[in-house]
Design a protein that fits this description.
The chain has 281 residues and is of the alpha/beta class. A 5-stranded parallel beta sheet has the order 2-3-4-1-5. Strand 3, helix 9 and strand 4 form a beta-alpha-beta unit. Helix 9 packs parallel to helix 11. The longest helix is centred in the N-terminal third of the chain and has 28 residues. The C terminus is likely disordered.
C-alpha cells in the first residue's frame, strides 16, 4: 500500500489500444483493421515506412470509396439494382447503344443536361434508367429514384403537412433526379403543378432523367393543361438526350418463348407491347 508521499505508478496502456482509439477517432477503420497485416507484409518485402503508409492509405481510400458508393446507392432508393452489363441491346435495335454508353460516363450530369427515355411498356426504359442511376452513384453523384406517381403523392403529402419547401430543397440537391413511369397515371391539376415546379427548379441547375411510355404530343393528357405541358417540355428538352426504345416488349418476348417451349397457344390478351395495365417499363 502506498503512502501519500510515495509516487503512484501510472497505469500503462498498450500502444495497440491507444492506436486503435486514435484511428477510430480519426475515422480510419481500414487503417485499424489492416495495419498489423500490412506491417508484416512490408517487413517481408523490406518496404520502408513511406511505402508502408502508402499501402495503408491506398487501402483506406479504396474501402472508403466503396462505402460511399454503397451509401449513395442506399440513399437513391432504387427499385432494383441493375447495370448496363445485363441489358440486351440486341433486342432493342432502336436504342442508340453508343449514346447510352456515353451517358454512363456521367458527363451529361456534370453539364446539367437531361435525359428522356421514350417507348412502349416493357422495352427496358426502367432498366436503362436504373443502370444510369447506378453509374452516377459509382461516379460520386447523389441520386434519387422515384416513379412519377410516387413523387406527386409525396409532394402533395408534404404540402398538406407544410414541409413542401424542405422536400423541394432536398430534390434540388440530388444530381440526377430519376423519375420513372411518367404517363402511366394522369395527375390532378395540383399534382401537375407540383411536379412542374420540381422540374422548373431543376432547370439548368441539375440533371433530370425521365422515362415515359407516352410520346411528347400526348403529355397534355397526363398533365391536363396545354400551357403547363408546353412550359414543362420547353424546360426538359432544352438540353436533353432522347433515348428512343420502340422495340418489342422484353416481357412479351419472354412469354412467347416460354409458350413455344411448352407448346401453349399465345395469350390473346397480350397482343401488343403496351397493352395491359400490369406491364411496366
Amino acid at each position: 500500500m502506498t503512502t501519500p508521499h510515495e509516487p503512484t505508478t501510472p497505469t500503462m496502456v498498450a500502444p495497440q489500444v491507444l492506436l486503435g482509439n486514435h484511428l477510430k477517432a480519426l475515422k480510419l477503420p481500414t487503417f485499424a483493421r489492416e495495419y498489423e497485416k500490412v506491417a508484416m507484409e512490408s517487413a517481408q518485402d523490406r518496404a520502408d515506412y513511406p511505402r508502408y503508409l502508402l499501402r495503408l492509405c491506398e487501402l483506406e481510400r479504396i474501402d472508403r470509396e466503396r462505402r460511399n458508393v454503397e451509401r449513395r446507392i442506399r440513399m437513391a432508393r432504387f427499385s432494383q439494382i441493375k447495370s448496363l452489363d445485363t441489358f440486351d441491346f440486341a433486342a432493342q435495335p432502336s436504342l442508340n447503344k453508343s449514346l447510352v454508353l456515353e451517358l454512363a460516363r456521367c458527363e451529361w450530369i456534370e453539364k446539367r443536361q437531361n435525359c428522356i427515355a421514350l417507348g412502349p411498356s416493357g422495352t427496358g426504359k426502367t432498366h436503362v434508367a436504373l443502370a444510369l442511376g447506378l453509374a452516377a452513384c459509382q461516379k460520386g453523384h447523389s441520386v434519387a429514384f422515384t416513379t412519377a406517381a410516387a413523387l406527386v403523392h409525396e409532394l402533395m403529402e408534404a404540402r398538406d403537412e407544410r414541409r413542401l419547401r424542405a422536400l423541394q430543397k432536398h430534390l434540388n440537391t440530388v444530381k440526377p433526379l430519376v423519375v420513372d413511369e411518367l404517363g402511366y397515371v394522369p395527375f390532378t391539376a395540383v399534382g401537375s403543378e407540383l411536379l412542374f415546379e420540381v422540374f422548373n427548379q431543376r432547370y439548368e441547375r441539375g440533371s433530370t432523367l425521365v422515362t415515359s411510355n407516352v410520346p411528347f404530343d400526348e403529355w397534355t393528357s397526363v398533365f391536363g393543361s396545354e400551357r403547363l405541358t408546353g412550359a414543362l417540355l420547353d424546360r426538359l428538352t432544352h438540353h436533353v438526350h432522347i433515348l428512343e426504345m420502340n422495340g418489342e416488349s422484353f416481357r412479351l418476348a419472354t412469354s412467347k418463348k416460354a409458350q413455344r417451349r411448352t407448346g401453349q397457344a399465345p395469350n390473346v390478351m397480350t397482343k401488343t407491347s403496351n397493352e395491359g395495365a400490369d406491364l411496366k417499363s
